[in-house]
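It is worth pausing here to work through a concrete case rather than discussing structure prediction in the abstract. The textbook approach is simple: state the sequence, then state the predicted structure, then interpret. We follow exactly that order.
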Amino acid sequence: MKVLVIGGDGYCGWATALYLSNKGYQVGILDSLVRRYWDLQLKAETLTPIAPIEKRLECWKGETGKSIELFLGDITNYDFLLGALKKFEPDTIVHFGEQRSAPFSMIDREHAVMTQVNNVVGTLNILYAMKEHFPDCHLVKLGTMGEYGTPNIDIEEGYITIEHNGRTDTLPYPKQPGSYYHLSKVHDTHNIQFACKIWGLRATDLNQGIVYGVLTDETKMHETLINRLDYDGVFGTALNRFCIQAAVGHPLTVYGTGGQTRGFLDIRDTVRCMELAIANPAEPGQLRVFNQFTEMFSIEELALKVKDAATAMGLKVEINNLDNPRFELEEHYFNAKNTKLIDLGLEPHNLSDSLIDSLLNFAIRYKDRVDESQILPKVSWHRK
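Step two, the predicted structure:
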């Protein structure tokens, strides 16, 4: 099977492309490399050193004998996208090619508009290319659990059955996104659902939780294949930030009370979920939604887990609570369903088994690359 990974130079995309290639899929990567440009723009670098994409792919071929075809360009350019698709002729399109940072989308008007245009227009272009030239192709799109927000009821997997005034219907689950980034993902979901309904396309929307970890079987083959570990205030996750802070002796910075609860999963589970979705495609006319996470933690719980693990390694760790730069509930109900991928065969990894090997050890190994000026938040949701 031929799989085109859009956004294959990024964190999830790179791990997925290598994993699928190693499993015997014929893989192509399509990427504009804009994520690297944003690092330069923000004057922030991933903790781990990332080689140029051509060098990465050359190393992969040297390690495994497997080639990954590369297409460099922007999916908001329809002519480029269509040319790449016609050349590669994918059976499945894995779509990671979006701006994925909530803080980035909230920097200012320019970044909000860029996020929406990049994400919504890029996805619309893919849908039209599928409709006009690849109607049997399966789209596996990375969504986000952040589309749902934090409702005071259980979060179902994409759809909810409602009884109202004596009538019953199954409807898309209500969305309460928390940033212009998350809003772009909601727009994507609606556009994909509409395209599947009117054109008979097939798509799987993977509403992913927060991903952690550096190691997969493939990325650990050679240092040139290493994956990203972002810790800065724009692209870094709270868990990554805590691990880097523990390594350099900086207090762990919990936003607000720390009661914000989210879904999490290991990068090794991300790539396995992608494989399960590809191997078990949606039906024509169907937008299928899976909630892609394995465990739920509050931010305070994460900080305590990092503190305990780092202390066991001989590090001295403190926890500080900061004013929350985000507009979000800090104490809330959160119970999300995630059974569909488990039913397909996912065997999850646990954070407790990954925290030291795939996070803290890397934080310590590369701590000389840490720029402490990038650790604290620089973007606020609040009106100034």
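Step three, interpretation. The chain has a mean pLDDT of 97. The chain has one domain: 2-374.
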